[in-house]
């Protein structure tokens, strides 16, 4: 069996620190934005009853002005807490095993060893911090275990400052890709659009540097199929203007938007993206649907079969979202369920579980 490579993992320092932001409070506001649509329910601590009304944001303004001042804070054992009307509320964002709200390089390597995972791609999501330098420390400590993705300020990606940071991430820090999140436009209230021509210098530099882009088209607390499709169309515009950029759509194709009665109903833009060389779809169903379905996630098998039939085994990559995946299953189970898909041959699984990521990053793969 070829080396297993996880396309979606996270290392991060203490979540209550600045973590690359200007202050710890600035980071907390970004976390608050990240968890107001969390998969796990928001709970009233007094009686552990779920709270259904929005309490972290006003439900109207999708930018920073929509955040409510509720004393949002980092607790222990994977929880975040806040207070509304004298009631303490919380969300179990990580599993309780993440006692001190950190995910160190050493911890993740121990988890990878236990689960049989050879390498992991570190996705640079701003909820965990602005982690370009932190990722470099992880990669330098374990160069054969981690691939680091750079993070940029998406709305300012055309500026000299961000272009210089992108160059530093590659030439000085040795990061090998970019994590690009539409949610990064949140800070500006989503005024800009990612395929605006003013960002062409950024995409030209990404292409020149040979970077792999991990795209996250999701944004806002309650994205619709129309929203997600719109951002896929903008992604397609970028890739057609700057051909050849190796790409992966992170946590691709949400079932709640595109699936009904156990079948995918995909917009044409997904099929257009699937025709491009080196565009892959990250399949990470357990982290999103593990609360709804139990291992081995049988309802996902026909959906994976559809993607396999449409796009072929060279287009699918596995991602766990570790350490988040421990909310619902073990790290090993987050990929072992794929072995229940009897339409996948041993060769297909080798591609799915590492070969396709190795190709994107031009890694040697036994």
Give a verbal description of the structure.
- 32% of the residues lie in helices and 16% in strands.
- With 366 residues, the protein is an alpha/beta fold.
- Helix 4 runs parallel beside helix 5 and helix 6 (225-241) runs parallel beside helix 8.
- Strands 1-7-8-9-10-11-14-15 form an eight-stranded parallel β-sheet, sandwiched between helices. A five-stranded antiparallel β-sheet has the order 3-2-6-5-4, with no helix packed on it.
- The protein has twelve helices and 15 strands.
How would you sum up the major sheet? 8 strands, parallel
| Parts with pLDDT < 50 across at least 5 consecutive residues | none
Number of helices: 12
- Widest sheet: strand order? 1-7-8-9-10-11-14-15
* Helix-and-strand structural type: alpha/beta
Over the alpha carbons, how many angstroms does the gyration radius reach?
20 Å
Order of helices and strands: EHEEEEEHEHEHEHEHEHEEHEHHEHH
Overall geometric form = globular
Mean pLDDT: 95
Count every beta strand, where a strand is a DSSP E run of 2 or more residues: 15
Distance between the termini: 8 Å
Helix fraction bin: 25-40%
β content, as a range? 15-25%
């Amino acid at each position: 069996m070829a080396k297993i490579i996880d396309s979606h993992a996270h290392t991060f320092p203490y979540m209550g620190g600045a973590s690359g932001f200007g202050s710890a409070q600035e980071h907390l506001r970004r976390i608050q934005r990240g968890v107001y649509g969390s998969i796990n329910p928001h709970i009233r601590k007094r009686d552990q009853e779920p709270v259904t009304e929005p309490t972290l944001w006003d439900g109207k303004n999708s930018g920073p002005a929509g955040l409510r001042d509720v004393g949002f804070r980092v607790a222990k054992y994977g929880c975040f807490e806040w207070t509304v009307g004298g009631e303490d509320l919380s969300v179990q964002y990580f599993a309780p095993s993440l006692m001190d709200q950190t995910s160190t390089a050493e911890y993740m390597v121990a988890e990878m060893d236990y689960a049989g995972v050879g390498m992991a791609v570190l996705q640079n999501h701003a909820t965990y911090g602005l982690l370009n330098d932190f990722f470099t420390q992880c990669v330098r400590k374990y160069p054969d275990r981690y691939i680091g993705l750079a993070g940029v300020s998406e709305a300012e990606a055309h500026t000299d400052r961000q272009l210089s940071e992108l160059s530093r991430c590659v030439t000085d820090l040795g990061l090998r890709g970019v994590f690009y999140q539409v949610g990064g436009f949140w800070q500006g209230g989503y005024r800009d659009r990612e395929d605006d021509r003013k960002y062409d210098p950024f995409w030209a530099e990404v292409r020149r540097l040979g970077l792999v882009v991990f795209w996250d088209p999701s944004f806002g607390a309650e994205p619709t199929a129309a929203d997600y499709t719109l951002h896929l169309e903008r992604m397609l515009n970028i890739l057609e203007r700057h051909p050849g950029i190796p790409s992966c759509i992170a946590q691709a194709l949400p079932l709640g938007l595109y699936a009904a009665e156990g079948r995918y109903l995909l917009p044409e833009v997904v099929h257009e993206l699937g025709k491009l060389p080196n565009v892959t779809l990250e399949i990470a169903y357990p982290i999103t649907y593990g609360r709804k379905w139990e291992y081995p996630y049988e309802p996902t098998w026909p959906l994976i079969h559809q993607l396999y039939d449409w796009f072929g085994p060279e287009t699918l990559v596995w991602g766990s979202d570790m350490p988040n995946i421990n909310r619902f299953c073990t790290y090993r189970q987050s990929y072992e369920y794929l072995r229940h898909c009897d339409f996948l041959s041993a060769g297909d699984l080798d591609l799915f579980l590492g070969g396709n990521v190795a190709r994107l990053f031009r890694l040697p793969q036994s």
